[in-house]
């Protein structure tokens, strides 16, 4: 038994992450009528999580005021590092919902 297996066994004895993963995710048997349309639920959840996370980061730099709103969006697009990507990710996810 190598060191990595011992370490995983030690961690799993204290925090049963591996056994929980096996019981609930990796050895889960899919139904026979499982098809392409089952992916849309998890895809919608993924887009929702991306919307929440990107919205939190955009909120950190946005000013919700009539005088400063456009300037804050310009600031996000031009001066915030990777802000333009974050805004476009958020707008693309918003058009999916």
Domain module tally: 2
Kindly report the average pLDDT value: 90
Q: Ranges with pLDDT <50 over ≥5 residues?
A: none
- Order of H and E elements: HHHHH
Q: Level of helix content?
A: 55-70%
Class by SSE composition: mainly alpha
**What separation lies between the terminal Cα atoms?**
50 Å
Shape: elongated
Largest sheet: none
Rg result: 22 Å
- Give the beta-strand count: 0
In what range is the share of β-strand residues? under 5%
Number of helices: 5
State the main characteristics.
97 residues, mainly alpha, 5 helices
Q: Any chance you could write out the topology, listing elements then pairs?
A:
Layout: H1 3-14, H2 17-26, H3 39-59, H4 69-78, H5 83-96
What report would you give on this structure?
The chain is mainly α and 97 residues long. Helix content is 69%, strand content 0%. The chain contains five helices and no strands. Helix 3 (39-59) crosses helix 5. The chain is elongated.
